[in-house]
């Protein structure tokens, strides 16, 4: 017998990827319910490319009882309203929004990094999925931390517009076209022109001058990897449709060479090392779209600090950064706790 799974926010970028990944990875489901807002009721969506079409159900009337797992990709507002109802109905919520990530009673999980923390899920029946820029970074940091203990990380991100949803993707597309034909479109989703530009601002500003996206990278890394690791982040939106990139400088307690780091990363779970030190011998975001891996390139020593390394990290933000990580959590939950399938 397989699982009954609800995908909440099924019509969005991440919801569609969740459906695709459940099918691709042959997640042992008996039933998948696509759940969305009243606007999408009756909309038919395909489960990946299986040819199986399902009709969206209205979240306002959806009964979660009898469902084992609900993958939420609905944003913080609807999640605040419906996730507690799903959890109270006995369905384990795996939530992609930021709502529960810092709740001490909710595990925040990246299966390659802190799988054991999932055992705490029963307090609320909710498990949180991290922010996309955090997820790929901690996958890269974990195997190095295990060997040489990380003290401090300085990261600059190059985040694709799909992180801002379909509206963000549409804005990049329409703006690029408009600029080509000589128009001057006003920014809407983004605060400045995104086509042929970069914007050093993601999410709202905080009192200390950082942005909430930057704060998430700091706070979530501490919760997932190690509270002692210090992180300084600068998060930047770039005119790329899918795939987040990160330039990461790491300072370790113990000595570690670039060559040792390459050897460690080559064997690490979830990572593909592509680091040829020649023209094109590294990965760019367009090459990671649709993949599961977190790609690491450009590993080198950072001589400005003792025991320093620099590297380049690229991953599909809709997959490892969101839908894939959520499905991996569901798989982990199944193996350790729900035992069906
Ligand atoms: C972005 N990282 O690229 C954001 C999107 O907390 O889950 C995901 C926000 C989050 O805009």
UniProtKB/TrEMBL annotation:
The keyword DNA repair does not apply. It catalyses: L-aspartate 4-semialdehyde + phosphate + NADP(+) = 4-phospho-L-aspartate + NADPH + H(+). The active site is at residues 132, 244. Its EC number is 1.2.1.11. It comes from the Bacteria. Phosphate binds at residue 101. Residues 4-121 form the Semialdehyde dehydrogenase NAD-binding domain. One of its GO terms (molecular function) is NAD binding. It is an enzyme of class 1 (oxidoreductase). Keywords: Amino-acid biosynthesis, Diaminopimelate biosynthesis, Lysine biosynthesis, Methionine biosynthesis, NADP, Oxidoreductase, Threonine biosynthesis. GO terms for biological process: 'de novo' L-methionine biosynthetic process; diaminopimelate biosynthetic process; isoleucine biosynthetic process; lysine biosynthetic process via diaminopimelate; threonine biosynthetic process. Pfam families: Semialdhyde_dh, Semialdhyde_dhC. NADP(+) binds at residues 11-14, 39-40, 162-163, 317. Pathway: Amino-acid biosynthesis; L-lysine biosynthesis via DAP pathway; (S)-tetrahydrodipicolinate from L-aspartate: step 2/4; Amino-acid biosynthesis; L-threonine biosynthesis; L-threonine from L-aspartate: step 2/5; Amino-acid biosynthesis; L-methionine biosynthesis via de novo pathway; L-homoserine from L-aspartate: step 2/3. SMART domains: Semialdhyde_dh. Substrate binds at residues 159, 237. InterPro entries: Asp_semialdehyde_DH, Asp_semialdehyde_DH_beta, NAD(P)-bd_dom_sf, Semialdehyde_DH_NAD-bd, Semialdhyde_DH_dimer_dom. Homodimer. Catalyzes the NADPH-dependent formation of L-aspartate-semialdehyde (L-ASA) by the reductive dephosphorylation of L-aspartyl-4-phosphate. This is Aspartate-semialdehyde dehydrogenase.
